């Protein structure tokens, strides 16, 4: 019963006088708990009237039940997502340009589009290694971060790339527009990152966190913000955002990590100015070093133009 299911049955004589939840359990093959939940949600009527779970049923009464689709939050739903660009595709890998607002794979609490759902919907066969909801996934980008990423199509590619990311032999280059001017203009942030003690959706520099290393250099310095090129040595969740916030130079638009909402509004951003511009690694089949690049999407291009023009 995964489809939304609407059923009407009359109560047989044998269930006369039973509680509604018990009768439902018998008639529809549900657990008593599930039946009670449906009654509490107002999905059950007897002879057109709402009922409580402990009400009794009479023989011949019409039991009207709507059973909503039960959704597995980790199920990969094949669905072509507008805006995902294919940068490169061969037998062992597919390289995509991920737009903002798309998660890499399904997770509890996320009901929006995903990269793995798109690839399934567009007919790509990807590696089956890894948990079912993230097969073939060897790296991740935040929902609010756009840019280049690689997905493994063959098992061979999956194991080699997974290892390359683990061994830090992959060149991961991002561009970030951050508030103010980092001092020095180029440097390295070496500060462990762990879950934020007060907010479980955030991360922070924590003494007992996991080792995290970010290298940055300033490409452009403007009145309100600086455009940085960032190379990641490690790949922690939210790493660049956390490290920049720790330097007191959060990514423009990154309200989660302390960015100025007035500036975000001024440049028209509803997410952090952060883009994965380049990815370089040894191709799993040929062994040669390959590099893939993507350009800034429209919202980031616009925000950067506003910053460049600000006097």
Automatic annotation (TrEMBL):
Its EC number is 5.4.99.-. It catalyses: a uridine in RNA = a pseudouridine in RNA. The keyword Transferase does not apply. Residues 18-82 form the RNA-binding S4 domain. Pfam families: PseudoU_synth_2 (PF00849), S4 (PF01479). SMART domains: S4. Keywords: Isomerase, RNA-binding. One of its GO terms (molecular function) is rRNA pseudouridine synthase activity. PROSITE patterns: PSI_RLU, S4. GO terms for biological process: enzyme-directed rRNA pseudouridine synthesis. The keyword Transmembrane helix does not apply. It comes from the Bacteria. Responsible for synthesis of pseudouridine from uracil. Belongs to the pseudouridine synthase RluA family. This is Pseudouridine synthase. It comes from Nocardioides lianchengensis.
